[in-house]
């Protein structure tokens, strides 16, 4: 299994199902009328898989490097996509034709040679490219009446290009100095080599595609064969490359080259010193002298490189300061021109003085008019106004006192009702207590009177008492 096919099967969700995989490798061109949703789903799955594979750097090429923004189609691509069970993808030309028609993939020659932005609605690939790929739509491997090879061609994957460009512009947006916006081609490629994939680097072909896109389609840079300059935020379009820009880019390259030579020299000095000490300990005089000689040479080269690097850094700092001063002066010039234009609009100091004088005259005239109008009207009697105000105030106070009196009367009436209710309740309770008390005394008096009367009756008539006693005696039998 090729590296490309292994990547697609392990990273693309649409290629993990056996049923879907069989459909993707089949001749699904007939579905465009019978099952358009399935047709477009298969086309989209293939386009995504190829774009992701290109970004990962697994698309086969003739050289050792793998382009990340460009796909080369041909026999090698078909062979790399061949599945041991389903064979080669039958509809791969249809995939590229669909991608080209929607500007998702663009023939490399058309992309690099076009003078207008690919984002313009009128832009289209060359007529021959459209016709050629329309004819090749059915020219697939193994089909009767057609060749057994793909038409060789290179296609720019626009989504990958846009992603890389967006990331580059995002990183460069943090640079505020104009001198930091100038890069050489080698410095550009070194800085942004892994902008799409940290494991795969951009190639020289990718660099050309990316520079063309940033310059023509994004209006973000200007460049030539040596230098690349990003557009400052204050400028509407990129400024052309100047000789000063090329000098700054070369200076930065030289400084980077010198700084890269310093660590190996420092390591060589340390290594020679260790070798000399080891030779002295083992009493190898010749070897010790050779190591010391090598150490001295390395130290001399290190000191020279360090001195050159220091001088170059000083020059670079002065260039940066000068560039910043140029920006400041240009800003001041622009401000002076703007201020001059504004002063011209208001007529200078004389114009302002004339305006102020006219304003004062008009204000005085307005005051005179107000005075005349006020004098022509009838005078207002202030005493009458005071009298009416006092009457209104008195009426308001009487109304307020009347409302307060009514509220007080209402509260007193409510309190009186409450007291009457309390008094009635207390009288009722007192009467109940008296009635209960009188009822108890009456019963006792009645009982006492009854007993007294009984005793009195017996004492007054003894015969009645004896008769009563006889009646109570039992009868003898």
From TrEMBL:
<dbReference type="GO" id="GO:0000815">
    <property type="term" value="C:ESCRT III complex"/>
</dbReference>
<feature type="region of interest" description="Disordered">
    <location>
        <begin position="396"/>
        <end position="477"/>
    </location>
</feature>
<feature type="compositionally biased region" description="Basic and acidic residues">
    <location>
        <begin position="396"/>
        <end position="406"/>
    </location>
</feature>
<feature type="compositionally biased region" description="Basic and acidic residues">
    <location>
        <begin position="413"/>
        <end position="443"/>
    </location>
</feature>
<dbReference type="InterPro" id="IPR005024">
    <property type="entry name" value="Snf7_fam"/>
</dbReference>
<dbReference type="GO" id="GO:0006900">
    <property type="term" value="P:vesicle budding from membrane"/>
</dbReference>
<protein>
    <recommendedName>
        <fullName>SNF7 family protein</fullName>
    </recommendedName>
</protein>
<feature type="compositionally biased region" description="Basic and acidic residues">
    <location>
        <begin position="467"/>
        <end position="477"/>
    </location>
</feature>
<dbReference type="GO" id="GO:0009898">
    <property type="term" value="C:cytoplasmic side of plasma membrane"/>
</dbReference>
<dbReference type="GO" id="GO:0032511">
    <property type="term" value="P:late endosome to vacuole transport via multivesicular body sorting pathway"/>
</dbReference>
<dbReference type="Pfam" id="PF03357">
    <property type="entry name" value="Snf7"/>
</dbReference>
<dbReference type="GO" id="GO:0005771">
    <property type="term" value="C:multivesicular body"/>
</dbReference>
């Amino acid at each position: 299994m090729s590296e490309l096919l292994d990547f697609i099967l392990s990273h693309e969700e649409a290629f993990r199902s056996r049923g879907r995989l069989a459909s993707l490798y089949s001749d699904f061109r007939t579905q465009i009328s019978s099952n358009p949703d399935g047709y477009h789903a298969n086309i989209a799955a293939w386009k995504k898989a190829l774009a992701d594979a290109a970004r990962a750097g697994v698309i086969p090429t003739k050289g050792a490097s793998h382009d990340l923004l460009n796909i080369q189609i041909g026999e090698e691509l078909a062979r790399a996509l061949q599945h041991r069970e389903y064979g080669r993808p039958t509809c791969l030309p249809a995939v590229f034709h669909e991608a080209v028609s929607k500007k998702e993939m663009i023939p490399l020659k058309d992309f690099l040679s076009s003078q207008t932005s690919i984002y313009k609605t009128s832009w289209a690939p060359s007529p021959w490219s459209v016709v050629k790929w329309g004819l090749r739509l059915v020219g697939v491997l193994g089909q009767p009446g057609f060749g057994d090879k793909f038409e060789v061609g290179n296609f720019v994957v626009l989504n990958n290009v846009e992603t890389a460009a967006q990331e580059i512009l995002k990183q460069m947006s943090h640079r505020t100095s104009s001198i930091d916006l100038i890069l050489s081609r080698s410095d550009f490629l070194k800085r942004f080599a892994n902008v799409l994939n940290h494991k795969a680097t951009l190639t020289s072909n990718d660099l050309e595609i990316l520079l063309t896109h940033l310059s023509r389609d994004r209006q973000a840079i200007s460049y030539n064969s040596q230098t690349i300059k990003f557009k400052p935020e204050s400028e509407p379009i990129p400024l052309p490359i100047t000789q000063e820009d090329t000098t700054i880019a070369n200076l930065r390259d030289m400084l980077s080259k010198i700084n890269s030579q310093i660590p190996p020299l420092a390591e060589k000095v340390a290594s020679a010193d260790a070798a000399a000490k080891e030779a002295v300990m083992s009493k190898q005089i010749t070897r010790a002298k050779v190591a010391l000689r090598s150490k001295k040479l390395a130290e001399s080269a290190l000191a020279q490189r360090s001195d050159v690097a220091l001088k170059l850094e000083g020059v670079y700092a002065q260039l940066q300061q000068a560039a910043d001063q140029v920006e400041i002066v240009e800003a001041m010039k622009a401000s002076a021109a703007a201020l001059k234009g504004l002063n011209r609009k208001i007529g200078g100091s004389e114009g302002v003085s004339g305006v102020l004088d006219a304003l004062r005259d008009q204000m005085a005239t307005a005051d005179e008019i107000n005075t005349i109008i006020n004098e022509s009207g009838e005078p207002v009697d202030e005493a009458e106004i005071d009298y009416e105000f006092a009457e209104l105030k008195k009426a308001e106070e009487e109304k307020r006192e009347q409302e307060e009196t009514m509220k007080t009367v209402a509260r007193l009436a409510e309190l009186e009702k409450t007291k009457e209710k309390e008094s009635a309740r207390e009288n009722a309770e007192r009467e109940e207590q008296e009635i209960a008390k009188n009822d108890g005394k009456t019963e006792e008096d009645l009982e006492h009177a009854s007993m007294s009367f009984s005793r009195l009756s017996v004492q007054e008539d003894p015969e009645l008492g004896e008769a009563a006693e006889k009646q109570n005696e039992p009868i003898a039998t």
